[in-house]
Amino acid sequence: MAASRALQEARKHAIPTARIALRGESLLTNPRYNKGTSFTHRERKDFGLTGRLPSGVNTLDEQIERAYEQLSSRHDPLRKNTFLQSLKDQNWVLYFALVSKHLKELVPIIYTPTEADAIAQYSHLFRRSEGLYLTFSDRETMEEEFLEQTVKQGREIDLVVCTDAEAILGIGDQGVGGIAISAAKSVMYTLIGGVDPARSLSVMLDVGTDSEKLLNDRLYVGWKHKRVRGEEYDQFLDKFVQLVRKYYPHSLLHFEDFAAKNAYHLLMRYRNQHAVFNDDIQGTGAVTLACLMAAIGVANDHAHNKKGSLASQRYVIMGAGSAGLGIATQIRDAIATADHVSKEEACGKFWMVDREGLVYDIGEGMAKGVGEIKGRLEGFVRSADEGWKGDVSLLDVVKQVKPTVLIGCSTAAGAFSQEVIQAMMDGGCERPIVFPLSNPSRLVEAKPEDIMNWTNGRALVATGSPFPPVKMHVDGREKEFRIAECNNALIYPGLGFGAVLAKTKELTDKMIVAGAHRLAELSPAIRRRHGKNEDHAGEALLPDFEEAPKINFEIGVAVAEEVVREGDSGVDGLKVTDVRERAKEKVWVPLYADYEYDPKGEVW
Ligand SMILES: NC(=O)C1=CN([C@@H]2O[C@H](COP(=O)(O)OP(=O)(O)OC[C@H]3O[C@@H](n4cnc5c(N)ncnc54)[C@H](O)[C@@H]3O)[C@@H](O)[C@H]2O)C=CC1
Ligand SMILES: CC(=O)C(=O)O
Ligand SMILES: [Mg+2]
To answer: Any keyword Electron transport (predicted)?
Structure first.
């Protein structure tokens, strides 16, 4: 496809000669510039490395082969994760080239689910710092620390990924270990989105932790203090955001794994001031919207008479946190845009379920189980006038509402029981759309294999972490169903690449939706359908992660084109028709440049 050719062409441009001022040990220990055994004899002489390396010179492919051999001798996913972490600390090109070559195998090692275990054990596995740690107790000197890691080193930054680590993946408050989610999300921006790793910054905003386990751990390396909240928290966060705005006005600021209340508040506070993006709210909303559009397309193929649309579904979403409300908001807005119904009317198609069951109005501005309605919950709280009383369980909601779409982002493992799925079918839903999206894998609301068996292969399923294909007999024939990984990582790297490419001043909903539409168009299930291939039943709703770089290139182009259309681009004279060519030039690929020694050259 075109994107693949684009990446190939980009490879040719990607390796201009680099002028480097580092020599000897400082070059070998700099992961951005280190080439290890790939330094040529000429480079070894010029940079004082001859005696520092064995005499043989390897190609990058040989280095990848060796590293893969070393990796494969480790059988435990967490040990593979720490090996890859060390490799990243040593040599970026080799790390990204290795992971790119074995993308499908290694993304689950460096991202969900294994990264969750690495984060949970961060203080025990700690070897080397990475990124920028900004700690509340050092708030007076925050600007100096920020400058030390960025401007003073001559760094140009396009992308800042930050977390306060209160709601990491599905495993809650992880304190300072959260730096590893910022770093993992940054890695995905490079691996899949083509963002230059030298131009991204991973940040941990350490405002303490409420995890007793961490506070009582002698080896905990974060700030041993209860979480700072309220005005002091807001001021600390604001100080950080203003630094980003001051020194990198064209950067994209990505918020990851904040607790729902702060996540929403921060997004609302800054979205009109800077290009900010909350991945758990907007990224998850966008990828789920794309997956849903594909699912409805497939269901329509099999529908005997009435064809479904986004507006004709009834949605039950379990987990009214960042992801659940982000998904609901994104789908609601898409319904309102596509079907010209009001946002209020579109909200009526959603039923949110949380810890205490259905979320409904219990008076005095409060919603059952989730607190204050004002703000993020507005519109998604059912009225008590509908007759709801006490705790209304998921099963009761499904029986009464007869949903066609069931989405999980609750961390409640196993919550989508056979009874719940059966109730969905008993309600007349021919092709139940079921997305148990909680991460990591062990927290999934239902295993795909079970859902497919309970529905005799009729369900349309996507999960948040990777799951193997489901093989089963349907009507006497053996079938294989591929399970889409509906993870925000399938879309945010492209959204970010597009935003950075066009230097957008804000990241608007329309830009995000442009990316989601592009992703839905590239769904294998839909592509097969357009290709008139009848046997598409087993295709995944979303492209495979193997294809993520190509797909995200397309998403990036779609987003950047929308930035230009909206007149928000900070790139002088950029036209919609120029975007694709510019994207090809900008995409970062893991290849070694030739080095010339220059005392005035690059040092960072
Ligand atoms: N697939 C994807 O791309 C993404 C998946 N997620 C996953 O979704 C889950 C939630 O993440 P966030 O929304 O960021 O967290 P969050 O903490 O903001 O929200 C979780 C919500 O689930 C509720 N909840 C907890 N236990 C429950 C139970 N037993 N029954 C019903 N509701 C329950 C909580 O009260 C809270 O409202 C996590 O597992 C996370 O890994 C989050 C973002 C993206
Ligand atoms: C994927 C993601 O962002 C999460 O699980 O929090
Ligand atoms: Mg997240």
So the answer is: no
pLDDT band at 529 (very low <50, low <70, confident <90, very high): low
Ligand 2 contact, 488 CB (< 6 A): yes
What Cα–Cα distance (Å) separates residue 106 from each residue in 194, 207, 323? 17, 32, 25
With a 6 Å cutoff on the Cβ, whether 485 touches ligand 2 is: no
Q: Residues annotated in the binding site for (S)-malate, as ranges? A: 439, 487
Instruction: Tell me the ligand closest to 327's alpha carbon.
Output: 1
CA of 373 to the centre of ligand 2 (A): 24
The binding site consists of: 256-257, 280, 439, 487
In terms of DSSP bridges, do strands 405-408 and 433-436 run parallel, antiparallel, or are they unpaired?
parallel
Interatomic CA distance for residues 264 and 549, integer angstroms = 29
Rg (CA), the chain: 24
CA separation for the pair 59, 400 (Å, rounded) = 63
- What would the pLDDT profile of 4-56 be if each residue is shown by its tens digit? 555 555 555 556 789 999 999 999 999 999 999 999 999 999 999 999 999 99
Mean predicted lDDT score pLDDT of the chain: 94
Alpha carbon of residue 261 to chain centroid: 19
Q: Is 411 in the pocket of ligand 2 (CB under 6 A)?
A: no
Sequence-separated contacts (24+) of 214-217 with Cβ below 8 Å: 214/123, 214/173, 214/174, 214/175, 217/123
Residue 562, Cα to own-chain centre: how many angstroms? Answer: 21
- Which ligand 2 atom sits nearest the alpha carbon of residue 439? 5
Provide the token pair at 484: 């889409």
ipTM: 0.99
Structure confidence by residue, pLDDT tens digits, 373-426: 998 898 999 999 999 999 999 999 999 999 999 999 999 999 999 999 999 999
| Ligand 3 geometric centre to CA of 560 (Å) | 24
Q: Are 554 and 522 in contact (CB under 8 A)?
A: yes
Cα 398 from Cα 318, distance rounded (Å):
11
CB 506 within 8 A of CB 274: yes
Known catalytic residues?
111, 185
Q: How confident is the model at residue 1 (pLDDT cuts 50, 70, 90)?
A: very low
Atom of ligand 2 minimally distant from the CA of 280: 3
Atom of ligand 1 at shortest range from CA of 325? 13
